[in-house]
Amino acid sequence: MRTRSIARALPRTATRVALGLALLAVPATAVATTAVPPGRAPARTAPHSASHTAPHAVRAGVGLDDPAKKEIAMQLVSSAENSSLDWKAQYGYIEDIGDGRGYTGGIIGFTSGTHDMLQLVELYTQRKPDNVLATYLPALRKVDGSDSHDGLDPDYPKDWKTAAQDPDFQQAQNDERDRVYFNPAVEQGKADGVGVLGQFAYYDALVMHGDGSDPTGFSGIRKRALAQAKPPSQGGDETAYLNAFLDARVWAMKQEPAHSDTSRVDTEQRVFLNEGNLDLHTPLDWKVYGDSYHIG
C-alpha cells in the first residue's frame, strides 16, 4: 500500500512550465489540432462507436489489464507526466522539480520523499545486490518523507541514469508500478463494475494522488464519488458514477495549488467519457496542458 502522506505534486511537465523550464519536445506521435478554448475537448478525427451501458448493468469484458489496453494506459499517463507517448523512454528520467518531494524519477514518477523510490531501489537491490544504486539505500531511508538530497548528491542522478540502462532496473520499475498503482486500480475498478475507462481513471488518480487516509488520496476521492453516485456494482449507472468520480478528482486536485491545471481530467478523461467511449477504443484524441495527442 502506498505510504505517501501528501498528495503527488503537479506532473513533471506542468511543473517545468511553472518553474520556467523548457518542456520536453512534443512527440512525433502527437498531432496538431485546431486550438480550442480551455476545458473544451479537441475536435476528433472520427467518432467512436459509443459503448454506452444500460443503467444498473455491470459490464463484463476486456479490462485495463489487457495488454493492448495497458499500453494505452501507459501512453495516456506519459502524455501528462512527460509530454510524450514514449513511456519506455522515461526509465532514466530524474530531477528535483521543486515540489517538496525530493527527486522524481522513472516511468511513474517515483519520488525520494514519498517512499516509493525507496521501495523501488530496495526491490532492485534484492534482485541484483551489486547494482549501482544499492549504496544509496541508507540515504534514501534517511530522506524518506522529506525533500532532502542528503547523501544523494552529487552523483545519484547520474547513477540513476546508468541503472536505467539495465533491463533488471527497468523490470523493477515495471513491477513496482504494477504492484503499487496499476494492479490495485484495476482490481478496485473491476470490483466497482466499471470498464476500461473507469479503471484508467482510478489508475491515473493513484499515480497522481497516492492513497491513504488523506481525503485527497485515491480512497478519499472514491469515497467522495460514492456519496454522489452508485457504481455499477451497486446498481448504478456507469457514466453517472464516472462523472461523479471525475468531479471528485478535480476537487482533490484543486486542494493543492500545484494541481490548478486539471486538463488531464477535463480534456482527456472527460472527453472519452462524454463520447461514451467507456472501453477506450481507438482512435483516441486528447489534450493535456495544451498539447495534443493521438493514438490510432
Shape from CA axes?
globular
Between the first and last Cα atoms, what is the distance in angstroms?
35 Å
Helical content stands at 40-55%
Give Rg in angstroms: 19 Å
Given the helix and strand composition, which structural class is it?
Answer: mainly alpha
Largest sheet features: 3 strands, antiparallel
**Number of H/I helices:** 10
Let me know the number of strands.
Answer: 5
- Average per-residue pLDDT, rounded, comes to 84
Low-confidence stretches: 1-57
- In spatial order, strands of the major sheet run 1-2-3
Which range does the strand content fall in?
5-15%
User: Helices and strands, in N-to-C order?
Assistant: HHEEEHHHHHHHHEE
Short recap of the structure:
The chain is mostly helical and 296 residues long.
Question: What would your notes on this structure say?
Answer:
The protein has 296 residues and is mainly alpha-helical. Helices cover 43% and strands 6% of the residues. The chain has helices at residues 12-18, 67-82, 116-127, 137-143, 156-163, 167-191, 196-209, 218-226, 238-254, 263-274; strands at 94-96, 103-105, 110-111, 284-288, 291-295. The strands form two sheets. The chain has a three-stranded antiparallel β-sheet with strand order 1-2-3, with helices on one face. The chain has a two-stranded antiparallel ribbon with strand order 4-5. Strand 4 and strand 5 form a beta hairpin. Helix 3 (116-127) crosses helix 6, helix 8 packs across helix 9 and helix 9 runs antiparallel to helix 10. The longest helix is centred in the middle third of the chain and has 25 residues, at 167-191. The radius of gyration is 19 Å and the shape is globular. The two termini are 35 Å apart.
